[in-house]
Write a structure and sequence with these properties.
mainly beta, Immunoglobulin-like, 3 domains, 7-stranded mixed sheet, 3 helices
Length: 319
């Protein structure tokens, strides 16, 4: 009987430990999620990104949040996808007297969930500015929900980073950044997400999307040094450093390279690309950064060769 009791005690101890482990499983979080201070002119449309910083205990396939603001100053007229959610479903939102609730979910492709360590915009709010010059509004986030994936789909959260929107006075002279994005063959690229970040920060200050002729405009840029970041599915990201003076219009034209297109013919993983990757892998050809398909800092390694070969027979799509 004594031996049986000891076995029972041990069994209960294991169950309690297992239950405690389940209770303390970490849920998704981040350093913060929120907005930077923003400004715009009366009757203008201003894009304000909602940024997440350093995702932890993810990945995150869905998120919901509330943003409180004074709708006599600004009002959400549209919600767009962010740089981290380009492959997700179109955001859902609803305006209330106190502000707006926003929800967005991924496209069910696990790799498209927001991964650990990610920093960037999750959605972009398009505000209509209806306040008079000099008025301000809070932009306060609350009820932040970060979903975890299968099998439990439980909800974590993250601290809010709040901002203030100011309706600009007429004597404020902002600069502007404009430009066109093309492929290496000169084809104009519509639908490219263009974001603006400060030189010393990854926080998105402004965002837009190129039109059907590949042009973009970032219109409320204060005098400073920035990175103009261009992203589109199946193409390598580009970040261009630019300095803007007060009231200056700066032109930034960008060329995006297609992933897997090493011979610059706008076809990914064709016979020429495969040959170039194989030659680079045995030092018969000097590779550049485009030969690092698996993003591990090593050019034309075995993983890169494998990815190129699989892409050439449609077993893998280079996103």
């Amino acid at each position: 009987m004594k031996k049986g009791r000891n076995g029972l005690v041990k069994g209960l101890t294991i169950l309690v430990a297992a239950a405690a482990f389940v209770m303390f499983v970490a849920l998704p979080t981040a350093t913060n999620i929120g907005v930077a201070d923003a400004h715009g002119y009366t009757d203008a449309q201003v894009l304000v990104p909602i940024n997440i910083t350093d995702v932890q205990d993810g990945p995150v396939p869905s998120l919901i949040f509330d943003i409180k603001y004074d709708n006599s100053v600004i009002n959400v007229s549209e919600v767009q996808k962010g740089a981290l959610t380009l492959n997700w479903q179109t955001p859902a939102y609803y305006n209330h007297e106190w502000g707006t609730r926003v929800a967005i979910v991924y496209d069910s492709v696990d790799d498209h969930a927001i991964q650990n360590g990610a920093t960037g915009s999750v959605v972009v709010l398009n505000f209509s500015v209806n306040g008079v010059l000099g008025t301000t509004s809070v932009m306060d986030l609350s009820n932040i929900q970060l979903a975890e994936g299968a099998p439990d789909y439980q909800i974590g959260t993250a601290p809010a980073k709040n901002g203030t929107f100011t309706v600009q006075h007429g004597d404020v002279t902002s600069g502007k950044i404009t430009g066109q994005i093309t492929t290496v063959t000169g084809t104009v690229m519509a639908g490219v997400t263009v974001t603006l970040t400060a030189n010393d920060s990854s926080e998105v200050l402004e965002a837009t999307i190129t039109n059907e002729t590949g042009y973009f405009n970032l219109t409320t840029v204060e005098a400073a040094e920035y990175y103009v970041n261009s992203t589109k599915l199946r193409y390598w990201d580009n970040s261009t450093l630019v300095t803007v003076q007060s009231s200056e219009t700066k032109t930034v034209n960008v060329v995006l390279s297609r992933k897997g297109d090493l011979n610059d013919n706008e076809r990914s993983a064709d016979a020429g690309d495969v040959t170039m990757m194989l030659r680079a892998s045995v030092y018969k050809l000097t590779p550049d950064w485009r030969f690092d398909l698996n993003n591990n800092g090593r050019l034309a390694d075995a993983g890169d060769v494998t990815m190129m070969l699989r892409a050439s027979v449609y077993k893998l799509e280079l996103l």
